[in-house]
């Protein structure tokens, strides 16, 4: 795995030949570094260790990892083993499974499996770019001039190719000249909001402020938040949504304060085989992420810490789900199958 400095307009992930290039999101906002991933193992480990993150980017990276596996192995057993290893990297992210399955199925019987695998992974990336803009256009229709917007975690350009998912309506509204302000939840314990979302908003020149995760209710009660946009890592058949831990709390607060709460995600995030949120596997990450930050201890060293990476927001708390097909009521999401 090689690293070098960014020397071009930034994007989350791309490839040249068999090598996958990513921005190391663990270094933001202090340093912008490109990481070269030269094997399926390196790419899968980059997903697992959160050098890249966000449902769409995880999916694209998983597709490229599966393609790298086709370049490295020809034996069916080895390919299956590689696929399982890639899929174990982030078990909640539906886009990961969508990508590995799609690349595997399209390449396995192709005349040139390796070529077809990389073509399919490229196609997934380009579809994300196209769908991201469409979702942004739908979402921007909901944003009025002067709106204050709350978002949780990061669902911007680094999380899904193009315009992002939850930030796509924000980018689009800003491009349309609307006067907007964004409250970015810090998003403990990895601080994706404070570090990545804030960095993206600053790059785009969008007025914003970082707030601690516990502050959203305070600003809602003061009527300083007009609408909430979040992304999703998996959407169940009934409209329940798995997203970064803390999303459920924001949804309940929004319901209590009569604030519209929208989930923005492409159709590839929907798991039509999952009947409801209770069946979505929730990734439990290391307690060190809670007790340490950048290897500096910030909590009582003798205490245990629990670290679920995601939570489930029941459909009843969601105003609408925005996909590239339009804005849907959560209970209607099954119709997209």
Write up what this structure looks like.
- With 337 residues, the chain is an alpha/beta fold.
- It folds into two domains: 2-131, Four Helix Bundle (Hemerythrin (Met), subunit A); 135-336, Translation initiation factor eif-2b, domain 2 (Rossmann fold, 3-Layer(aba) Sandwich), CATH 3.40.50.
- The protein is built from ten helices and 17 strands.
- The strands form four sheets. It has a seven-stranded mixed sheet, sandwiched between helices.
- The relative contact order is 0.12.
Notable characteristics:
about 325 residues; alpha/beta; Rossmann fold; 10 helices; globular
- Major sheet strand order: 7-6-5-8-11-16-17
Low-confidence stretches: 2-8
Q: CATH superfamily of the largest domain, please?
A: Translation initiation factor eif-2b, domain 2
Helix percent band? 25-40%
The major β-sheet equals:
7 strands, mixed
Structural class: alpha/beta
Q: What does the radius of gyration come to?
A: 19 Å
User: Separation of termini?
Assistant: 39 Å
Count the domains: 2
User: What is the CATH-assigned architecture of the largest domain?
Assistant: 3-Layer(aba) Sandwich
* Outline: globular
Strand elements, count: 17
CATH topology of the largest domain: Rossmann fold
CATH top-level class of the largest domain: Alpha Beta
Number of helices: 10
The proportion of strand residues reads 15-25%
